[in-house]
Structure formats: structure tokens, C-alpha cells
């Protein structure tokens, strides 16, 4: 998926600053062994979408071509560290072997070191946030709380065919949308925007994050393994029943689908379940929900500004709907 934020005038310089501050944050003075673990997923790459959102939110209220302060970039890096630290923990919970096309931290160093390294990254994020002021420090602390709540909400409904859409949205609000909302809010706070602008940019991030997760869940149903870099239908296997599945369960074909969803689902049942969801209106209903959130997000960002950064954020939201598997629906 193309990243419109990567094509704005100062993106190259911003990318260099993001990588510089990230590298500094995951380097543990006097401890090369811990540095190897804490830097593992950072060195594996990534789109750096959250720090880019922080920078773009700060610049959306400024003039075109204006370079944001280093503190804004550091704020975005703090959010990225929360994301990476949470991935360390997620991979332990999921017993994952691969992350970002490399061996996961838990697979390489074991669960204990993965958990402790994840804790270190969360603590480092908090340290950076504290250097940016009490409001940013409090915001990131709240975000970590929301992440945990979202993950617990998901764990509470594993393999539950009676999971409601309200429970689904409550979970993704914490585990996905909160980080995007924090990214844009951090940028707006550090840039000194007005309260109205800060709140509007926060809402843009929240709406984008919800759309992002819905599309990710749709791709888990319709995309090929080559397109998403992981086996499709993995959420069904792991008992995480997302919006396309929940929508389908509420339709007449839901009874057949319900009979396939259980902890010991085999390959044939997984494929049959995917076929049912793919051919149902539940999938289209989920896509319409994502389209609605994208449109709301675009309206929010354009109410702040129409400069190059605001346009890039709006285009990034629209790009969620333009990947090949989504366009074919």
C-alpha cells in the first residue's frame, strides 16, 4: 500500500530524523546484548506510520514546507516505541515465530527476554514523553492503559461466536485506534496548536485507526498470503472473530459458519469458513463501515487545514481502500 506521507516535501529529512532518534532510543549504553534485543524489530524496518502521523499533525496547522521541531519527531518516536514494545508482548502471547519477515524476539531469545525488552521499550517511551511535558507524559501513560484494555477485551471473547460488534469496536479502539489518536495528538500538543485543533487532529487519528483495523481484518479474509505476508484466515484459527465474521454470523448463512468456528478448527473447516464469509454480505457491510470511517477522517483533517500535510493525511486514509484485494470486492 502506497504511503502518501512519504511523498511530501520534507519527508526525506523527517525519515532520517525518525531513524536517528529511534536508533538512539533503543541503544542501551554499556549493554550491547540488551541493545541487540531492543533494536531487533526496529532494525527489521517498518513504515514508521505513527511517527509520520505525529509529524504530519504538527505540520498540518503550519505553512507548507515548514520543518517541524525535533521534539515533535521525538514525540512520534515515543509512540513508535509503544507500538514496537507491544509487538514484543503480542508475539509472546501468540507464540509467534516471525515478525516483519524476521525471527520474532521471543523465538530468538525466549519469552522472558522478550517480555523484559518490551517493558524496556515502553519505559523508554515514557521517559521520552516526560521530557516533552506532563501532558504528553500523561497521554502516553493513558495510551498504554488503553492498549492493555483493548487486548484484554479481545482475549475475553476468543472463540466466542456471540461476540458483539460493540465488543469488537471496544477492543480495536484500545489496541489500534488509540495509538494513531495519540500520534496525532502528540504532534498537535508539541507543536502548540489550539485546543480545538488538538482535539480535531486526535479524532482524525482515532477514526483512521478504526478504519485501518477494519481493513486489516477484511484483508485477513480476502487477501492471499503473498499479499499480506502471513496465512489468511489466521484470526479465525486463533478465535479472534472480527467484523466481517461477526456480520456474517448475524446473517442466514451464520448458522453454517457458527458450526465451523471452534478451537480445534482444521484446514478444511478454515477454508470453508473463509468461503462463507467471502461470499456473504457481511464482508461488504464491513467494507462500508471502513469507508464511512475513512470519509469521517478526511472531513476532520480538512476542517483543520488543506495544506500539503493535511492532504497527505487525507490521502493516507483514502489509500486504505485502494489496495488490490479491497478494490476487487
Unreliably modeled segments: none
Helix content: over 70%
Q: How far apart are the first and last residues' alpha carbons, in Å?
A: 16 Å
Using the CA coordinates, give the radius of gyration.
20 Å
Work out the number of β strands. Answer: 2
Continuous helix count: 18
Strand order of the largest sheet: 1-2
Q: Estimate the strand proportion.
A: under 5%
Per CATH, the class reads Mainly Alpha
Structural class by helix and strand composition: mainly alpha
Shape: globular
CATH topology: Farnesyl Diphosphate Synthase
The fourth-level CATH homologous superfamily is Farnesyl Diphosphate Synthase
Order of helices and strands: HHHHHEEHHHHHHHHHHHHH
Q: Supply the CATH architecture.
A: Orthogonal Bundle
**Could you say how many structural domains there are in total?**
1
* Mean pLDDT over all positions: 91
Major sheet size, sense and barrel closure: 2 strands, antiparallel
Amino acid at each position: 500500500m502506497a504511503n502518501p506521507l512519504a511523498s511530501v516535501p520534507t519527508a526525506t529529512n523527517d525519515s532520517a530524523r525518525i531513524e536517528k532518534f529511534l536508533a538512539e532510543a533503543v541503544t542501551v549504553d554499556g549493554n550491547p546484548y540488551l541493545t541487540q534485543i531492543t533494536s531487533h524489530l526496529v532494525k527489521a524496518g517498518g513504515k514508521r506510520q505513527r511517527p509520520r502521523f505525529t509529524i504530519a499533525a504538527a505540520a498540518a496547522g503550519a505553512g507548507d514546507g515548514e520543518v517541524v521541531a525535533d521534539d515533535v519527531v521525538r514525540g512520534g518516536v515515543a509512540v513508535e516505541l509503544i507500538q514496537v514494545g507491544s509487538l514484543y508482548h503480542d508475539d509472546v502471547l501468540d507464540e509467534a515465530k516471525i515478525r516483519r519477515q524476521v525471527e520474532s524476539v521471543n523465538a530468538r531469545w525466549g519469552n522472558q527476554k522478550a517480555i523484559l525488552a518490551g517493558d524496556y521499550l515502553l519505559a523508554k517511551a515514557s521517559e521520552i514523553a516526560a521530557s516533552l511535558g506532563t501532558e504528553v507524559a500523561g497521554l502516553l501513560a493513558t495510551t498504554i492503559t488503553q492498549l492493555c484494555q483493548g487486548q484484554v477485551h479481545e482475549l475475553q471473547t476468543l472463540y466466542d461466536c456471540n461476540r458483539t460488534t460493540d465488543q469488537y469496536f471496544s477492543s480495536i479502539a484500545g489496541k489500534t485506534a488509540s495509538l494513531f489518536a495519540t500520534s496525532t495528538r502528540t504532534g498537535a500538543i508539541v507543536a502548540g496548536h489550539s485546543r480545538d485543533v488538538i482535539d480535531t487532529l486526535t479524532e482524525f487519528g482515532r477514526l483512521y485507526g478504526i478504519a485501518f483495523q477494519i481493513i486489516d481484518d477484511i484483508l485477513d479474509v480476502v487477501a492471499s498470503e503473498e499479499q499480506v505476508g502471513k496465512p489468511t484466515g489466521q484470526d479465525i484459527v486463533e478465535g479472534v472473530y472480527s467484523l466481517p465474521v461477526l456480520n456474517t454470523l448475524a446473517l442466514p448463512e451464520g448458522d453454517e459458519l457458527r458450526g465451523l468456528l471452534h478451537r480445534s478448527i482444521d484446514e478444511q473447516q478454515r477454508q470453508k469458513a473463509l468461503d462463507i464469509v467471502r461470499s456473504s454480505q457481511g464482508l461488504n457491510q464491513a467494507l462500508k463501515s471502513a469507508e464511512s470511517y475513512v470519509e469521517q477522517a478526511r472531513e476532520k483533517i480538512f476542517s483543520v487545514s488543506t495544506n500539503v500535510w493535511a492532504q497527505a493525511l487525507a490521502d493516507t486514509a483514502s489509500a486504505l481502500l485502494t489496495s488490490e484485494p479491497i478494490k476487487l470486492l
